[in-house]
Amino acid sequence: MKLKRFFSFLLFATVITAFTACDEDEDTSVPVDVTLNFTAPSDTITSFTWAEGKATFTDLNRGKEYELDLSQSSVITLSSGLYNITVEGAIASTSGEILCNVRSTKDNVQISAPSTSIALELSIYTPSNSLILKEIYVTGTANDKGTSSLYDKYFVIYNNSSETVYADGVALLESTFGTTEKYQYNDNPQPMTTTFTAAAIYVIPGNGTEHPLAPGEQLVLADQGYDFTQTKADAIDLSIADFEWYDETEKGMDPDIAEVPNLDKWYSYSATIWMPNNQANRAYAIARMGVSKDEFLANYYKEYHYTATNGKEMTKKGYDVPVAWVLDAVNLGNTGFERIATPAVLDRSYATTGIAGTDKTRFGRSFIRKVASSTGSYTVYQDTDDSANDFTFTTPSLKK
Ligand SMILES: [Ca+2]
Ligand SMILES: [Ca+2]
Ligand SMILES: [Ca+2]
User: Fold this and answer.
1) Which of 172, 240, 242, 362 is most exposed, with the fewest beta carbons within 10 Å of its own?
2) Structure pTM?
3) Same-domain check for residues 186 and 103
4) CATH code where residue 95 lies
5) Is residue 14 included in any domain, yes or no?
6) Domains contained in the chain, number
7) In this structure, which ligand is nearest to the CA of 260?
8) 126 alpha carbon to ligand 1 midpoint, in Å?
């Protein structure tokens, strides 16, 4: 019986071949259910889910590409044939905590009817960090009395790669939660474990090619693009800033310096002006926003629920920025440190002032990334996603 069926199949196949030999455009492929089976990149990961991931199938005979969203399914229906497969994404624990970025490739895979199961070994990788936060000056220069600080705060975004990178559409973010807070978080997954939770979002404007940064070039993002040495001799001249974050208020609390272009304000938790926390107890990030402003504001808003230390049920508002969009993230802290405010895949430690949050000697000191190498044509800064190691807390680079 089996043999008979085999022969009739052979006969059928011969007829088809003979027929298609006359007509090369005829496609003999049949639909095949393809299942991907993944091996975790480490023995310590016993089970995982896809936080985000994409498998790309390149049909080598027909030159077509097919994509599968791994966060939705690991099964796809393709035409039989020969394929190259690439996989890239981030995996998470069953509770949703992002573990690592992974990828895998397999070439010349035969996909044949009735179904094909493909084993893929995942390996961990760190996406190349092109743009980095080179410097974070959130403490500000002390005022005359030394009781608080001026508005001469700034961030430096630097091209740490060997290629020209465009800064258009890159956002500066401040975390919703602090690194000196520890609450009972009542959401699942826990906030800060799967996304960068942002409470301030200011985006570099541009059409995509307006702000090229050659290797080693940088942009200064300032609170106010003003020469603060006019106010106090040891302050920073930020009239050289490339952008300023401007908050329009009825009372004009934030000056709009005409010569310095404004960042595009997407969101700030503050009803008035955004001041980066000068006790250094937040995380900061730069991210290439993956969707338009309207789409982001409509779809990425989040309310986070937690129980405060006094037992009160609390809600914080913010926006969930996907890990895949984040180019660089840095946790800052002081001696009151409790927890990092980012997924560990972005930054597994924190850069510290080494003193109490309210210690007035923090003013006038800046978080600056260590140099990894300065032997080439431009300086490469150290970015091991381990901010305790990667940063020093010292004199601002823009101080004259
Ligand atoms: Ca401002
Ligand atoms: Ca301005
Ligand atoms: Ca980094």
Assistant:
1) 240
2) 0.75
3) no
4) 2.60.40
5) no
6) 2
7) 2
8) 34
